[in-house]
Amino acid sequence: MSPTLDTTRRLPDPSVNADDASHVPSPYDPVEAPAGEAIEKYIRTPSRLSDLKALTKPRITRMVVITASIGFVFGVDARSVMPWGIFAIAMLGTALSCMAASVFNQVYERDTDALMHRTRNRPLAADRVSVKTAMWLGIALTLAGLGVLLATGLFLAAAFCAFTIASYALIYTPMKRVSTLALIIGAVPGAMPPVIGFAASTGSVGPAAALLFAIMFVWQVPHFLAIAWLYREDYARADLAMLPVIDPSGVRTFRQTLIGCLLLLPVGLLPSSMGIAGRAYFAVAAVCGLGFLAFAVALVLRPTRGHARRLFFASLVYLPVVLIAMMVDRM
Prior knowledge:
With 331 residues, the chain is an all-alpha fold. The chain has helices spanning 48-55, 58-75, 84-108, 110-113, 131-151, 155-175, 182-190, 193-202, 207-230, 232-237, 243-246, 251-273, 279-301, 305-330.
């Protein structure tokens, strides 16, 4: 259930520069009513259910389930019948674990979230949900996610889920305040979903899982650097150690973005060269990799917000297209 706003009378957030195109309106953005009119006429407070749902970051969970399902499919023998029951349980456990990590992340970052325009109206940052409630929600989701996997004998998948929650919430999240290496550390749990899916399918880890991990790991570098550049003022306001914050010229940021895209091109082609995917996948991965690289080169040559935004959207196209092409080619 999503909060409903009277969008016909919506006014911009006065604290956000109108030229700052990086600000993406959210259902939780504040609305300022004209003088003499009651603010209740213009905004409805998000419901308790919608706030709890927001804590679990549904869009991130959806992407995690998609990538985990691709890993699961790669673990199924092409001559075997798809084990739909195990698949459903594995995806449920993965989704619940992802939600738990998101909740713990927001518990820890509630103070810095409150300082940034794009996150200040999250339920914890805006003090609509208590820390105690959020912690219990995170604990319940963790126990449910791991419990579902353990109860059905998916022990390795459960171990990987536990590792993902711990590394994301206890290592990556606090490291964002002290080191730019947080990007690399965070890319590890971010690349785990296909490995979890593969482990749930096979009870082991194979070359296909390693390649899926490598593709997702490298992809996250240009993807998150583009985001960090767009929101660098917000990150600076919260005193987070993001590379664009300590690199105001953008030279190091754009260089690392370009290196990430250059590395992603051959890594994305490895499944075909190792016999895990075929020629159709090779063609798709090559086109997507070269296109992604072209956007990175354009950003280096013209370091504008527009080019950073285009690179970000290119990253959103690259990953699902390449992974779906790999799965279809495999099937």
